[in-house]
């Protein structure tokens, strides 16, 4: 008589137990995903900083990509007095807006200025540019995971080409941002050379205490503030993480004139940062490796672009060499050759 109730009781208990465990798993999953449960941790430990100038239609796209992140993100947006009518009056509540004069912008100095507005509890600052769009809903959380290793002072994510990227732009993304993650230290310098301190502030994260310990960004640079800090961190014994599964869409279809100007500015940066090249080596070997890789890529996928690639390689070399000898050039010519003309004002 009592066997059936016992069986039913056992089945019912087993079912309730399974339901209870399932509920616990669901709650754990929800705690991991729901922004409200993680608000304090993210707000106190991380700040996303973006610098803008005339972002135009890019601004709402950039904001939407941030809003799609799996956790609420606090953002500091610093605009250099845009003149294109970009609307900053309706930013999300988690955005803090600051404006500076366009003449006061500097790649290093402005990022240092941003640090004055970081909450005291912040552990990691992430820098992005207005034309880099978070590719996945967990891109920010993924790059933060690099700092579980206490020896990592900074990290940068993978940059994927936009859909409209030319074969040249697509190859450049693949060459500099491969599919495999890695962590480098000064021990890798003999093998990697200047590439050891490679980093891009289009999507890069820094442990704030380490960034401050090495003096922050250089106060006045034409570009390369990211590689300068990376070099300082490496020399200080820290490591740099490349997080290939933390992705943004970011690429440029530069004209030949833009390529010349960009490499002119790179030459200026290297000329004014002699310790960087003395410590990590020159760029000649890496440049030749890039050209060989590019030609091989184009031969397989876009052979009609090979003449343009060879022409651009020459233009880049000329721009870079001219930039290295910028001290011998008159100021008007330097301004004309440069992509970042405000630097010379």
Summed up:
This protein has 14 helices and 9 strands.
Q: What is the total tally of β strands?
A: 9
Q: Provide mean pLDDT, rounded.
A: 89
Give the biggest sheet: 9 strands, mixed
Unreliable stretches: 1-44
Number of helices: 14
* CATH architectural name of the largest domain: Alpha-Beta Complex
CATH class (first level) name of the largest domain: Alpha Beta
Oligomerization state:
single chain
Secondary-structure content class: alpha/beta
Structure description:
- This protein has helices spanning 3-33, 35-45, 58-67, 109-115, 139-144, 167-176, 189-192, 208-213, 225-235, 256-271, 274-280, 284-301, 306-324, 331-337, and strands at 46-52, 75-79, 95-99, 124-129, 133-134, 152-160, 182-184, 203-207, 239-249.
- The chain is α/β, with parallel strands linked by helices and 345 residues long.
- Strands 1, 2, 3, 4, 5, 6, 7, 8 and 9 form a 9-stranded mixed sheet that branches.
- Residues 1-44 have low confidence and may be disordered.
- The chain has 2 domains: 36-249, Spore Coat Polysaccharide Biosynthesis Protein SpsA, Chain A; 256-344, no CATH class.
Keywords:
single chain; 345 residues; alpha/beta; Spore Coat Polysaccharide Biosynthesis Protein SpsA, Chain A; 47% helix; globular; disordered N terminus
